[in-house]
User: What shape does this take?
Amino acid sequence: MKVFLHLLKREFLLFFNNKVLMVLFLGAPIMYGILVGGVYKKGKVTHLPIVVVDEDRSPLSRQLIDMFNESEIIYVANLLDDTFQAHEAAMQQEATVVVQIPKNFAADVNYNRSTELTLFVNSSNTLTSNYAMLAVNTCAATLKAGILIKAQQKKGVPAYVAAQQFEPFKTTIIKQNIRSGNYLYFMLPGVLLTVLQQVMMLALALSFASEFENGTFKELVQKSSNVFSLILVKIMPYILMSVFIFFLYYGYSIWYRMPLHVDGIGFFGISLLFLLAVSFIGILVSIAIPSQLKATEILMVIATPSFIVSGFTWPLSQMPEWIVTVAKFIPLTHYLHVFRTMIIERGSVDLVSSSIWGLAIIALVSLIASLILLQLKINKVKREELALSQTKEAQ
Assistant: This one.
């Protein structure tokens, strides 16, 4: 028993002496609890933007718009006169529903003629689109009910009887950007791209860390001391192999009957920028942490919550500002926005300029930091070699 207690004490000492392990074991549950709790703290989405095309411009249509703005769930982010720019306006505002109020809407309602609202629903995010669509339907149904009850009361029908006779406001719902018609089309791309970021980071975390740990960094420097060349050599195999992974993902889309269509070469350029940003982060950690285990542990902490805070499933607009700030430092956040806009919603490059800048800044800052740290490591090796040669000459 005494030996067992001694060994147990030894293990506790080893644990507390390993600072990285202690931070991960104790810090990760605290950090993830705060992070995930902060993301989903509201419990429901609110204040979602919608676009309204008001072709009627009547007091009744304005009343309906006021009801949209008074709703807890939605608000009118853009009010248009016609449908010509509606699709582009919706993508710019990240609105999931476009409501079209037709001409003569008020007149048709007043004279009991057939009329309807048309809802164009962007179903690329099923969560936000369902919430926004339900809120629009609720507002429209409430307006229709009030109109019909008043009409019945004018005819002498008691209010309680009139309230039982109204029908919900009829609408035409046109769902877009969900060609597969199931949840797989929504989830699979996000999960697969998260996996790609994670494996890229973890693989490159070993690049320089393994050289430091195995004592082969001096040999590497003797062959080339050019920092640009060394970093390019380390990331190039993974960039090239990631092309195969993209083809694999495209094969999945065909296998699951949800083909992805790419228009132009802009998306491929942004994909390369994403891979570079991820690679430079992995390289930076690998240079800064000269231990394979510790480097992978740190990148695991970074990569694991990235999908949750990326805004792909739960909108960034519903998260606290500090979590949004953290999310913007992760390449996946920007790339998933690009993927959804350009591939699922078939938008143009102009609509994702902020995400392109985000990826570019992450890549540039990580590259500069990597170059500086690597140059310092090379200089240290050269100083050690010079000191060693001077010692031998002195002997």
Notes: DSSP finds 17 helices and five strands in the chain.
